[in-house]
Amino acid sequence: MFNNREKSHTESQLTNPFSESHGGMQRLKISKEEYGRPKAGSLTEYRGKKANIQVYQEMLELCTVINDEGHSVSKQTPEIRGILFGELFNIYTHINDKLVGLLLRARKHELIAFEGEVLFQRRDDNVPILLLKPIREIREIMVGKQTEIRRSLSPNPQPTNMLK
């Protein structure tokens, strides 16, 4: 068992850029799919997935506030609602201080729409923010994504320690 531990340590030192003990580092072989991603089953991957679950929850909360506090856009589609940015800012800053980032994220997931790249308080107070889908459908999408991540979480994440 000790020999296995020693061999594992020696191999990890070959890929450790801070190790001076083994005369240079081997070049890591990382595929395009692995590049920029944490090791599968690691604590880093686990924490990232937990953070994604939280972000999906916050986006759902944002869309719920828009739905509850907003107004119907048209009589043909009463389930599609909208709100002005200034009004949403005044309501939502008491809930969460990351409103602008959440708006950008929700737009990326095609849940909401608004004009411009980034919205700023006072300058963009009259910019309308529209839900693109009924809140029922948004809730199903967000809960589905959260459930998918929860199912993929490893029941026992392992810490990744490069410097063993």
How are the secondary structure elements laid out?
Layout: H1 2-14, H2 43-69, E1 71-72, E2 81-84, H3 85-92, H4 99-108, E3 112-113, E4 128-131, H5 135-152
Antiparallel strand pairs: 1-2, 2-4, 3-4
Characterize this entry briefly.
The chain is α+β, with helices and mostly antiparallel strands and about 160 residues long.
CATH architecture of the domain at 52-162: Orthogonal Bundle
Helical amount: 40-55%
Mean pLDDT: 85
CATH C-level class of the domain at 52-162 is Mainly Alpha
Q: What is the percentage of strand-forming residues?
A: 5-15%
Number of distinct beta strands:
4
Give the uncertain stretches in residue-range form. none
First-last Cα distance: 16 Å
**What's the CATH superfamily of the domain at 52-162, by name?**
Costar domain
Biggest sheet, open or closed, and with what strands and sense? 4 strands, antiparallel
What order do the helices and strands follow?
A: HHEEHHEEH
Q: Structural class, from helix and strand content?
A: alpha+beta
CATH topology of the domain at 52-162: Arc Repressor Mutant, subunit A
User: What Rg do the Cα atoms give?
Assistant: 23 Å
Total of helices: 5
Spatial strand order of the main sheet: 1-2-4-3
Any idea what the shape is? Answer: elongated
Biased composition (Basic and acidic residues): 1-10
Domain Costars: 53-132
InterPro entries: Abra, Costars_dom, Costars_sf
Region (Disordered): 1-26
